[in-house]
Amino acid sequence: MEVTLRIKRYNPDSDVKPAYKEYSVDVESTDRVLDALNQIKWKHDGTLTFRRSCAHGICGSDAMRINGRNRLACKVMMGELGRKVTIEPLIGFAVIKDLVVDMERFFDAYKSVKPYLIADEAPAGRERLQSPEDRDKYEDTTKCILCAACTTACPITWTNDEFVGPAAIVNAHRFIFDSRDNGAPERLRILNQKSGVWRCRTIFNCTDACPRGIEITKAIEEVKRALVFDRI
Amino acid sequence: MAYHRFDAVIVGAGGAGLMAAIQLAGKANIAVVSKLYPPRSHTGAAQGGISAALGNTEEDHPEWHMFDTVKGGDYLVDQDAAEVLCREAIEAVLELEHMGLPFNRTPEGKLDQRRFGGHTRNFGEGPVRRACFAADRTGHMIIQTLYQQGIKHNVNFFDEHFLLDVLFADDGSCCGCVTMEIKTGEIHILHAKAVLIASGGFGRVFKITSNAMAGTGDGVAIPYRRGIPLMDMEFYQFHPTGLYKLGILLSEAARGEGGILRNNDGEAFAARYAPTLKDLAPRDMVSRFIFEEVKHGRGIDGKDYVHLDLTHLPPEVIDQKLPDVTDFARTYLGVEPKTHPVPIQPTAHYAMGGIPTDVDGRVIRDAQATVVPGFYSAGESACVSVHGANRLGTNSLVDLVVFGRRAGKHMLEFIQTAQWQQLPSNPDFIARAEVDAILSREKGESIAEIRAAMQEVMMDKVSVVREEIGMTEARDKIAELKTAYSHAAIMDKGKTFNTDLMEALELGYMLDCAETICVGAIARQESRGAHYRTDYENRDDVNWLAHTLLKKTSGGLELTKKPVTITKFQPKERKY
Questions:
Q1: Which of B121, B90, B133 is nearest to B254 (CA)?
Q2: Are B494 and A52 a contacting pair at CB < 8 A?
Q3: Computed over its alpha carbons, how large is the radius of gyration of chain A?
Q4: What pLDDT score does B545 carry?
Q5: Rounded mean pLDDT of A180-198?
Q6: How much is the pLDDT for A76?
Q7: What is the 3-state secondary structure (H, E, C) of B384-428?
Q8: Of A5, A61, B135, B198, which is most buried, counting CB atoms within 10 Å of its CB?
Q9: pLDDT at residue B161 above 80?
Q10: CA distance A8 to chain B (A)
Q11: Interface probe with A: pick from B22, B40, B438, B490, most Cβ of A within 10 Å
Q12: Beta partners for B557?
């Protein structure tokens, strides 16, 4: 079927500001949006620039706005989109070129919550024990692939440079609720600030955007409760 | 142009690269270079598990794991390396857990383990539960955990830097590398005492592949161009269960949890070919079973695919242990695995061959194992050889952790006493010349078309089943495509984030890899592991119980054989 892709282009070497460009592609309904983008790049316009790698929804490279919603380009089938599709870069981060945005702020926020196990000396020669029930408590937030779909869907991120963002909170949650970790007090202290969880207005855009189906707002809520009731 | 000096540079931020980095961080001045942000690395796509003879759910021993690895590799495995792999696997998996990896657990809270293809108890008696796992996203957990450790240890990351060249001093030792900063197009020279290549494989050489688009063999092709031989390139694994037409991987874990392959008659055909292990026979064999069924017209509706049947599995098992696998089937094929069988076919998956190394990750330059000082490789880009002619599932993740760590440790020791070698004069000359050559052409051949032609001929003639005429056609076609490539032009001439240029350079790397696969496959006149030919159907231990080293010389490609290290297990017929 023939589909028109309307893509927001921007080349910093030659453009003053972004502009939309239209392309016509011939795709199957089972083709991914990524396949359509590749078709344009390989057959019509080699300058079209976007990040991509795994092409099956697990590396998080190709998060972008597809018909106004943050999605992974390799997980959306052309068949669900209709004959006119608008593709734009994520909002809230500076556009480097076309659909590529500056991810430095995103990774800085992630690093700021100490996203690694903080624990005592491990037992030598065997694993730390963890019951399946304890393992389940943080199962959801282990799924994060750092695609930034959630953080760039959050209206707070759009207007506030300092908000640590949903993804950072999700990855803090993953450790706060991991029974093997002792770093909860430190991470909760970091999140117990204006730039931390308290900027969250429970808008739910993040949960809506997450391609891994993580219940992000729920995780943020659990961190807020831990702070308010002083227990995990 | 920017100049940097480091004690060590690691190219590639997947499991092996990060493991090596963690050994060095805080103890030496290092840089980790990757063309992707580290969590995007292909380690994250691994699904099924990481094997170690912990014996948490049933009896197990490293010797059994070693035997399975050697037999799984059709006896081309260097057994000293396999012994190291299987012995250190236990420590490696426990180290991952200590770092916080969220493994699945037994009711007692220990690491849970599951069955996987080719892994047996008591030297082949029956399947054994050896694979530790995190649902069906074990690779995702590993890349996240190791990246987190990299952050914890303040590793210096050069994110989104594309490898253009590896530098060697006059005495042949490695002295650094050249990268392009993708965001700005700026060239960087990294002067180092030691360089580790951990840049992964090259599945994108084939049309149907499980590999990410980044899997283009950059770190394997460049040393090859500089005269480092590549080993066992003809051994390329085709994973039996890729989603039909897409190649997206459906983990072997699906069969480990009880999934069964069925043909058009609904028959569980694997049992006919491998009576003991059936669907859990090693991957190269299962891919051939599927090929045979399709050849005899028993593919679904007579087509070139079969079914993976999970419908008899308890729904909780599918939800808890195979959530991603089911998501792929639903999303990409619109098939619900709980109620319908999933269309699958073999997909290009893993390179057993690559840069030859010793068990400490040091690159060697000939059959006598002469070390190239300061040059290391680990992970899929290396060939120790721990996987021989075919890799067992779950052994790659162990490989990354064990040999990534060993390489890192050795590098740390090496740089204490090593000196910075003098860089070649004009170190970025070759890199710039390559880039300028492509950018300067106004019009020319299409990169996308050359790439598609390469992927088509490789999939058609040098994949699961091979023979002389077809492989020769492929070799000649690749040579033709290399000529076309030298006249190729791209549209994007800019400096900022030029992915058109990157894809062009990547194609050059892939063509080099494809060339060595074809030449090696034609030369090896036997069938062994993943290299199967209808014109030489049997294994020939008299002439071919050896690794193949392919080296670029001024006179052409030179092939030498390197002996296989055999210690505990004498080669026997490989039956399951």
A1: B133
A2: no
A3: 20
A4: 98
A5: 94
A6: 97
A7: CCCCCCCCCCCHHHHHHHHHHHHHHHHHHHHHHHCCCCCCCCCCC
A8: B198
A9: yes
A10: 16
A11: B40
A12: B552
Residues of B with CB below 8 A from A130's CB? 105, 109
Q: Does B105 touch chain A (CB under 8 A)?
A: yes
B183 touches chain A (CB under 8 A): yes
The closest alpha carbon to A81, from A44, A35, A48, belongs to A35
Chain A residues with CB under 8 Å of B332 CB are 30, 56, 77
Residue range B218-245: mean pLDDT, rounded: 97
Q: How far apart are CA B42 and CA A59, in angstroms?
A: 8
Per-window interface: B 35-64 vs A, CB < 8 A: 36-37, 39-42, 44-45
Which residue type sits at B92?
A
Quick: pLDDT tens for A92-146. Answer: 999 999 999 999 999 999 999 999 999 988 888 899 999 999 999 999 999 999 9
- Tell me: the pLDDT tens digits for B164-185? 999 999 999 999 999 999 999 9
> Catalytic residue positions of B?
283
Q: Which two structure tokens, joined as six digits, stand for A93?
A: 């981060």
Q: Which of A42, A46, A129 sits opposite B109 (nearest CB)?
A: A129
Respond yes or no on whether the N-terminal peptide bond of residue A131 is cis (omega within 30° of 0). no
> What residue in A sits closest to B108 (Cα-Cα)?
A131
Chain A residues inside the 8 Å CB shell of B327 = 57
Distance, in Å, from the CA atom of B56 to the CA atom of B68, rounded to the nearest integer, reads: 18
Which residues in chain A are contacts of B447 at CB distance < 8 A? 42, 46
Distance separating alpha carbons of residues A9 and B442, to the nearest angstrom: 23
pLDDT mean over B97-120:
95
- Cα dihedral B493, B496, B501, B505 in deg (nearest 10): 140
- Compute the C-alpha angle B193/B197/B201, nearest 5°: 175
The count of CB pairs under 8 A between chains A and B is 151
Question: Is the CB of residue B98 less than 8 Å away from at least one CB of chain A?
Answer: yes
Q: Do B494 and A60 touch (CB under 8 A)?
A: no
B496 at the A interface (CB within 8 A)?
A: yes
* Interface touch A117/B137, C-beta < 8 Å: no
Rg (CA), chain B: 22
State the burial class of residue B61 (Cβ atoms within 10 Å of its Cβ: 0-12, 13-18, 19+).
middle
CA–CA dist A110, A200 (Å, integer): 16
